[in-house]
Amino acid sequence: MNPLAVIGRFFLGFLAAVGRLSLFAVTALSHCLRPPIYFRLIARQMVEIGYFSLPVVGLTALSTGMVLALQSHTGFAHFAAEGAVASVVVISMTRELGPVLAALMVAGRVGASIAAEIGTMRVTEQVDALTTLSTNPFKYLVAPRIISGLIMLPCLVVVADIIGVFGGYLVGTYQLGYNPANFIHAVWDTLKTQDVTSGLVKAAVFGLVVTILGCYHGYHSKGGAQGVGQATTNAVVSASILILILDYVITALFFQK
Amino acid sequence: MTQPKIQLIDLHKSFGPKKVLDGVSLDVAHAESMVIIGGSGSGKSVTLKCMLGLLRPDTGSILIDGEEVVGMGARDRDRVMKKFGMLFQGGALFDSLAIWENVAFGLIEGQGMSRSKARDKAIEKLAQVGLGKDVANLSPSELSGGMQKRVALARAIATEPEIIFFDEPTTGLDPIMADVINDLIIKCVRELGATAVTITHDMHSARKISDRLAMLYKGKLIWVGPSREIDRSDNAYVDQFIHGRAEGPIQMELKG
Q1: In B167-235, which residue ranges form alpha helices assigned H by DSSP?
Q2: In this predicted model, what pLDDT tens digit does every residue of B10-53 receive, in sequence order?
Q3: For residues A17 and A24, is the Cβ–Cβ distance under 8 A?
Q4: How much is the pTM?
Q5: Looking at the complex, does the CB of residue B115 fall below 8 Å from at least one CB of chain A?
Q6: Do B92 and A125 touch (CB under 8 A)?
Q7: Interface pTM (ipTM) of the complex?
C-alpha cells in the first residue's frame, strides 16, 4: 500500500465532501428565499429549536457565568477584584462563551434531532414520497429548519448573555461580597455594542451551521437504523468542529485591527 | 399506432462498477396495467425510480406522453410530477401528520386546495379503500401494516393521477390482506382509468393485477408479454421465477 496514495485518497474524499456540502448549502439557502415559504412549518421549527432549547442553554449560561466569577476572583484576588471580575464575566459571556456554548448545546440537541428526523424520513422513503406529491423536500423540510436556526440562535444567545452575567452577579454579590452597585456599574462601563453584535453575528452563523449540517447528514443518510445513527453522530461532530473553527475566524475578523 | 403513455428507450444506469440497468426498453400503453417482475437486485426499483425522476439514468430516454423527461428542468418536472401517483413499499406515510393530512397532502400542497375541502376529499378517498371516518384523525403509527398500505393507496390516488406506480404493494402483508390490496389496486386503477406500473416479486399479485408482464433479469428485460402467456414463455429463466424454484439458470448471488 502506497502511503502517498492513502493520503491522496483521503484528501480527495475530503474535497468531495466539502463540495457536496457546499452545493447542498447553496441549494438549501436559495430555497429559503424563493416561494412557496411554509410559515406554519417555520413557526413550528422556531418553537422546537428556540423555545425548547431555553432550559438547557439557560442552565449552561448560568453555570458558566457563576464559575467565571468564582475562577477569575481567585486570579484577581491581589488586584481590584470587583471591577475586573465583572469585566471578565461580561466580555467572555457576550463575545465568546454565550454564542459558542449555546451553539454547542443546540448542535447536540437540535442538530441531532434534525439529522435523526430527516434521516428516518429518508430511509423510510418519506423524502421520496414528498417529491412524488409535488412538494420539494428542500422547501418543506430543509428551508424551515435553516430559517428558524438563523433567527432563533441569536435570540437564545441574548438570553444566554443576560443569564450568564446574572450568574456572575449572583456569585459576586452573594458569595464574594462585592458591592452590587459597583458590579453593575463595572459591567455597564466595560460592555460595548460591538461585544454583543459580534456575539450575535456568531450566533446567526452557528445557527446556519447547526441546521444545515443536521439537514445535510439526515438528507444523505442511508442504510436503515445504523445509517441514521451515523448521520446523527456526524451532524453533531461536524457542526461542533465547524463552530469552533468559525468562532476563531469571526473573532479575528471583528477584533483584529 | 397510438402514442404509448410511458416509453423507456435503452436505459442504462450504473452505480460505480455495478451495472444495474443494461439497456431496458419498454412501452406502456394508455390505461394499461404493466407489472415488472424480477428477483432482488434485478434493477426493478431503479427502473421505477428513473421513471419517477428520483434517479437519472446514465443514458437512454424516458418519454411520458411522448415528452422527454430525462434532464428536464425543475418547472417542467413539477408539471410532469403532477401526473404521477406512487404507492411506496413501506407506505412512506408522514408520521408527523394525521391520516387525513397524509391523504390530502398532494391536494393541499400540490394543488393548493383549501384544508377543509381537502379533508372532505381525503375522507372520501379513505372510504374508497375501505377505511372509515374514525381513522382520519389517528396518526400513521396507530395503524397496522395493512391499514397503512390502504392509507398510502388512498394518498396515491387522491390527486387522481394519470399514472400510478406501485412498489411491491403486497410485500409484508398476510395473504388475505395482500389480496384485499390487489383488489383495491384493480378497482382504483379502473375507476381512474389510470395507467399503472407495478414492480413486485409476488407472482400471485402480478398475475392478478397485470394486463401485461415484463421480467427483468440482470438489468435486461428478458420477457415481455400478456399475462396469460407467461406460462408458455419457453424461457427457462421466466419458468424458474414464476414457479419459484431454487434450481435453474438463475443463480442467486449470495455475495452482493
Answers
A1: 175-192, 203-209
A2: 888 888 888 888 888 888 888 888 888 887 777 888 888 888 88
A3: no
A4: 0.83
A5: no
A6: yes
A7: 0.80
User: How crowded is the C-beta side of B15, counted as CA atoms within 13 Å?
Assistant: 6
Q: CA-to-CA distance for B190 and A118, rounded, in angstroms?
A: 35
* Partner residues linked to B28 by β-bridges: B6
8 Å CB contact of A129 and B94: yes
Per-residue pLDDT of B147-206, as tens digits, reads 888 888 888 888 888 888 888 888 877 888 888 888 888 888 888 888 888 888 888 888
- A-contacting residues in B 74-93 (Cβ below 8 Å): 78, 81-82, 84-86, 88-90, 92-93
For testing contact with chain B, the best of A47, A127, A134 (most B CBs within 10 A): A134
Count the helix, strand and coil residues of chain B and give each as a percent rounded to the nearest 5.
Answer: 40, 25, 35
- Choose from B49, B80, B94 for mutation: most chain A CBs within 10 A: B94
Question: Which residues, 6 or more positions from B95, have their beta carbon under 8 angstroms from its beta carbon?
Answer: A126, B139, B140, B141
What gap in Å lies between CA B183 and CA B181, rounded to an integer?
A: 5
d(CA A9, CA B128): 56
> Nearest by CB to A133, which of B49, B95, B105?
B105
As a whole number of angstroms, the distance between CA B198 and CA B206 comes to 8
Question: Distance between CA atoms of B44 and B50, rounded to whole angstroms?
Answer: 10
DSSP state of B140: G
Peptide bond preceding A99 in cis form (omega within 30 of 0): no
Question: Can you tell me the distance from the alpha carbon of A208 to that of A194, in angstroms, rounded to the nearest whole number?
Answer: 21
Q: Is B80 helix (H, G, I), strand (E, B) or coil?
A: helix
Pairing of strands B67-68, B59-64: antiparallel
DSSP A82-135: HHHHHHHHHHIIIIIIHHHHHHHHHIIIIIHHHHHHHHHHHHTTHHHHHHHTT-
Spatial separation of the C-alpha atoms in residues B203 and B38, rounded to whole Å: 10
Nearest-CA distance A242 → chain B (Å)? 30
Q: How many CB pairs under 8 A join A and B?
A: 49
Determine whether the interchain pair A132/B82 forms a contact, defined as Cβ–Cβ distance below 8 Å.
no
State the smallest CA–CA distance between residue A17 and chain B in angstroms. 17
